[in-house]
Amino acid sequence: MNITRMDLADAGSPERLVLEILKLEPQLPIPVPIEELCLRLDIHEIVPLTTQGYEGGLITTPEKFNGSILFNKASPTERRRFTIAHELGHFLIPSHVPSAEGRFLCKLQDMRKLKGGESDRRLKMEVEANRFASQLLMPPPKFRMDVAFGKDPDIRQLSLIAKKYDVSKEAAGRAYVRFREEPVGIVVTQNGKVLRDYRDSLKFPRLAIPTGALVPAHSLLHRRKHEMGVPSDIDETDAGVWLPVERGRQPAPLYEQVLLQRQGYALIMLSRDAVAADEEDVDEEAEMTSAERLKRRLFSDR
Ligand SMILES: [Zn+2]
Prior knowledge:
Number of helices: 9
Bound molecules: zinc ion
InterPro entries: IrrE_HExxH, Rad_response_metalloprotease
Protein name: ImmA/IrrE family metallo-endopeptidase
Organism: Mesorhizobium argentiipisi
Number of domains: 2
Largest sheet: 5 strands, antiparallel
CATH architecture of the largest domain: Orthogonal Bundle
Mean pLDDT: 92
C-alpha cells in the first residue's frame, strides 16, 4: 500500500473519501485489510477499549495529526472490523471534531445509525462514520456485482457475501437491501420480537409491524420449524402479514426466508419481484427531509 493521508486532503464526505482510497489503492484486496489501511493513514495503534459500555473509540487531538483506535475485544472479529472502519471515518472526515477530552466514544447503537442528524451534530457524525465504514469494507463497485448475482434475493447469498467481505450479516444486509435490484427488507428479531429492520425506503414499504412488537403469527418464522444456522427455503407469505395493504387491493407477492441464529436471534428476509413491485405501496417521500422532498419535486421529471 502506498496511500498516505496527504492524498486524501481534498476529500470531505464519506463517499468522496472512500472513492479516493479506492482510486489510490485499486488493488485493495477483499476482505479489505482495514488495520493495515489505518496504520498507513496515521493511526498509531489499534488497541482494546478499557471503558465499559462502548463498542469503539478514537483518541486524537483537535488537529487530528494522528490517532489511536479502540475496539471492544469481546465483540466478534467481523463486528470489530466495522468498528475500526467507523473510527477511521471519524478520524478522516474533516468535520468530525473530537470531544474536549480529545476523543470519540461510540456505542453499539451508534454503529447502526443510518439516517438523521440534520439537527443533531453527534448523530450526524455517527451516520457519516457508518456510511464510510460500510462503503470502505464493502466497496460499491465490487459489492454491487456480488449482490446482483443469483436469481432471487436469498439469505444464503447474503451469508456468503458477509463471509467474503468479513463483515457481520447485519452489516452486509444493510448494504444488500440498497444494492439488490428487487425490493428487499431485512428484519432482525430476538425471542419472537422485532428488534430492527433495514430496507431501502425508495423500494420497500415501511413495515406494518413496529419495533418491539411480536413477529406476526403467520410469519414463516412461526409457520415452520427452523434449524439453527440453516437458511430456510424461500416461501410466499401473505403481504398483509408484514406490510400495510389497502382494502380491496391485491398486493404484489411477498416472499419470506428465515435464518435462525444463536441467543434467540433470527434474520428474516422479505422480498418482492423486481417488476411486480407494487409501486403505490411505497411512499417515496416518507422518510425524506423537507429539503430533500423539495429537491426531488423540483428535479424529478415525473
Ligand atoms: Zn462513532
